[in-house]
Amino acid sequence: MAILQGEIYWVHAKDLDIKGSEQKKNRPYVIVSDSRVNALGQNVVGVPLTTVLTAGGGRRIKVPLEMMVTNSTWPETWPDGTLRRKLETSIALVDHIRVLDITRLTIPKMGQLSSMAVVGLELALHKLFESPRNYLVPPLRPKTIQ
């Protein structure tokens, strides 16, 4: 199964070893790892989505429903008959990025982000990992002692 960057999957996370404020609910995740890397192994990197639009702080960005493409094959109900969540305007919790085993991803995918939304998410991830060491700084010139 090919898992592509920008795709959105429902992830079963309740059984993860959760500590502190880590995301502990089953929820949609956007795959942010490169599609070529995803094809090499059994893990992907994802960013969880929340529909609590007041979720602030950290590196979080709003993803409007208009920037998501819903998968028409996403079933209406779970096998037990309960309704499945549909995609809706969300906040990408970029500061809660996580490595996921692909067996946690519910097939079929829920949908995918537009290419513009993927670029926005990539920029937010870049800002998350940005540090003063990443800036280009001219080399220091030693002072001459007179």
Map the helices and strands.
Elements: E1 7-11, E2 27-31, H1 35-38, E3 43-50, E4 60-63, E5 68-70, E6 90-93, E7 98-101, E8 111-113, H2 115-129
Q: What is the overall silhouette?
A: elongated
Number of strands: 8
**Count of domains:** 1
- Please provide the ordered H/E string of secondary-structure elements: EEHEEEEEEH
Strand content: 15-25%
Instruction: State the helical fraction.
Output: 10-25%
Gap between N and C termini: 69 Å
Give the helix tally: 2
CATH fold node name: SH3 type barrels
Classification by helices and strands: alpha+beta
Overall pLDDT, averaged?
A: 84
Quick structural gist:
By secondary structure, the chain is α+β, with helices and mostly antiparallel strands.
Account of the 3D structure:
- With 146 residues, the chain is of the alpha+beta class.
- It has one domain (7-130): SH3 type barrels, CATH 2.30.30.
- The chain is 13% helix and 25% strand.
- The chain has two helices and eight strands; from the N terminus they run E-E-H-E-E-E-E-E-E-H.
- Strands 1, 2, 3, 4, 5, 6, 7 and 8 form an eight-stranded antiparallel beta sheet that branches.
- The chain is elongated.
- The relative contact order is 0.24.
- The mean pLDDT is 84.
